[in-house]
Amino acid sequence: KDFTSGSEVRWCPGCGDYAILAAVQGFMPELGIKRENVVCVSGIGCSSRFPYYLDTYGLHSIHGRAPAIATGLVTARPDLNVWVITGDGDALSIGGNHLIHALRRNVNLTILLFNNRIYGLTKGQYSPTSEPGKITKSTPVGSVDTPFNPVSLALGAEATFVARTLDSDRKHLTSVLKQAVEHRGSALVEIYQNCPIFNDGAFDVLKDRDEAQARLIRLEHGEPITFGVDGTKGVVRAADGTFEVADVATVGLENVVVHDAENPNPATQFALSRLDDPT
Ligand code: SF4
């Protein structure tokens, strides 16, 4: 039996959340974890309805506080497999403080951060990951804020597993999520998630096959990092701590997935700088 619950799914047609749910429901039986030993704790937002749709224990909790509640749970019951399901507004605005402390404490949590770069549930306000100049109901002349980069934030908090993947890339999404669940310690997986109602096409450039081939680099632990050449400079910090300047066919961290599932020592993680700040 898979992990599908009987609850009616209430996301808008075409929402990227469906793809993430399908991926999770698909691989959970392969992990060999009993459903009664899994707990999904969510905050508030569209993504936070996720626990209703998995046949596990779940808690639809308080806005931004899911990492704190999950920390308490896994501290009391370390035998459980505890997930945090959150979004860019929930995790990085009201819940930013809880998130960074869960990461720096290396609490044994799998954190899925659905990033659609918008507040969907409240109908389209700019979020902490919206791009500068974003015009929304709450920023009618364009956002003046610099967005958070969740991967940079997690690396800065010395999380021991950091990854980014894409809702429509089922193969990579599944691979990354499985490794995150198997990691002991804090694992943060940012998932680019399309919101077709309020921010449609935010990640379309990554879904175009030719563009993706040219600009997207998939990193998996243990694989050599190779970059295409388009003249763009970037800096890579290798596992031994050295820095190299590379020509990279990407636009920076926006398109790079970073994770190191087998080596939990933050000092040996791969990190990539922003390309516009190669020092
Ligand atoms: Fe998905 Fe956007 Fe609808 Fe929320 S508002 S369910 S993120 S499509």
CATH class: Alpha Beta
* The CATH architecture: 3-Layer(aba) Sandwich
As residue ranges, the low-confidence spans are 221-279
N-to-C span? 51 Å
What count of helical segments does DSSP give?
8
The bound ligands are: iron/sulfur cluster
C-alpha-based Rg, rounded: 18 Å
Total separate domains: 1
Number of strands: 9
| CATH fold-level topology | Rossmann fold
Order of helices and strands: HEEHEHHEHEHEHHEEE
Brief rundown of the structure:
This protein has helices at 17-31, 66-76, 88-94, 96-104, 150-156, 170-182, 204-207, 209-215, and strands at 38-42, 57-60, 81-87, 110-115, 161-166, 187-192, 233-237, 243-247, 271-272.
Give the topology.
Layout: H1 17-31, E1 38-42, E2 57-60, H2 66-76, E3 81-87, H3 88-94, H4 96-104, E4 110-115, H5 150-156, E5 161-166, H6 170-182, E6 187-192, H7 204-207, H8 209-215, E7 233-237, E8 243-247, E9 271-272
Parallel strand pairs: 1-2, 1-3, 3-4, 4-6, 5-6
Antiparallel strand pairs: 7-8, 7-9
This protein binds iron/sulfur cluster (SF4).
The site of iron/sulfur cluster (SF4) has 12 residues, from loops.
